[in-house]
User: Fold this.
Amino acid sequence: MSTSADTCERVNAQITTLVMQRPVGRRWLLGLGVAFLLLNLLLVCIAWLLIKGVGIWGVNIPVGWGFAITNFVWWIGIGHAGTFISAILLLLHQNWRTSINRFAESMTLFAVACAGLFPLLHLGRPQLFYWLLPYPDTMGLWPQWRSPLVWDVFAVSTYLTVSLLFWFIGLLPDLATLRDQQQRPLWQRRLYGLLALGWRNSARHWQRYESAYILLAGLATPLVISVHSVVSFDFAVGIVPGWHSTIFPPYFVAGAIFSGFAMVLTLIIPVRRWYGLEGYITPRHLENCAKVMFASGLILAYGYFSEWFTAWYSDDKVEAAGVMDRFFGHYAPAAWLMLGCNILVPQLLWFRAVRTSAAMLFVVSLLVNVGMWTERYVIVVGSLSHDFMPSAWGQFHPTFWDWGTYAGTIGLFLTLLFLFVRVLPMIAVSEMRKQEVAE
Assistant:
């Protein structure tokens, strides 16, 4: 009969050996190589952008917001699953989050890092980004508080700060575990010891850790609602047909959770297979993620139908024409792809066989990611291209640099993810030990 000490040793051995000890596999090297190539593409695109200006993108008049804002909203949405899993499910005492919360939290940080690039690059003069901050300058000028761009700066920076603190505090016991493993080289023990901030596993340390963790969870929970609500105000406060809607805040929040959980499943399913973590990330975890994704997808579908119904019932000719143009105009393929991926495909999740099948969930989550990016594209580009006056109508045609920058941020995201699973525990060892002993 195994004791609690045996259980803790088994968890330590199975999870911490993945960190800087197991030989680097071909899959990891191949994945990192592809991600690094895309990252270099991002650097080339940014360098050319700084040399030539935003004119290398396909933005024009009237579509002044193109891929940059589309990708910004998409990446911010992806980060919401980590906060939801870590903070809200912690406060609701959902123990199943333990196996995936560290991975999701890390995904949040990497997604926000990718999202933050686009507004800065879209400024045209990113070296002057500090003009968006309220600092006492010589001319006595202050940011334009009615600009959604300024709102985004404060929302995203607050979100990043709280998420980073939440992630790092959760890492402290695991960093101390890595520090205390004698089989590691001296430089690794010193590095992890420095990051562990003197953690000694004492009762006082645990009491302060639990208090800080719960406090940050309470701070992070309203951010799940507020951050994407503020992002939705970028559109809702405008008078552009297709944007000026009060349903946008809840609609965007539901879409963020929907896309975030889809990305968690897209990444966690192959990772659990490659690293042999099926004993920790079980079909139960996948099914619960699928249920949350399905529920938020239904809310998103309600938002779609509410938007269409409002355009019809209000008898606003411009709004109705905008909806018709969205589905039968120049961007109709994107709109129909959005409906197929975000409404039809998730209906498969009614069936438990699909929710518990890793292969089926991977395909569904991948299609949802495609659909959510397409939705952002339709909202941003489709609405701007079909304004009130036909004389102001225009079309957006993405250039190589648009696609290259987008693909490059995917490379940045994946590069950070591959490095993370190599140098830090992807599963919270301390929380898993506690759960295993309790069971």
Remarks:
- The chain has one domain: 4-438.
- Residues 4-438 form a domain with the Formate dehydrogenase/DMSO reductase fold fold (CATH 1.20.1630.10).
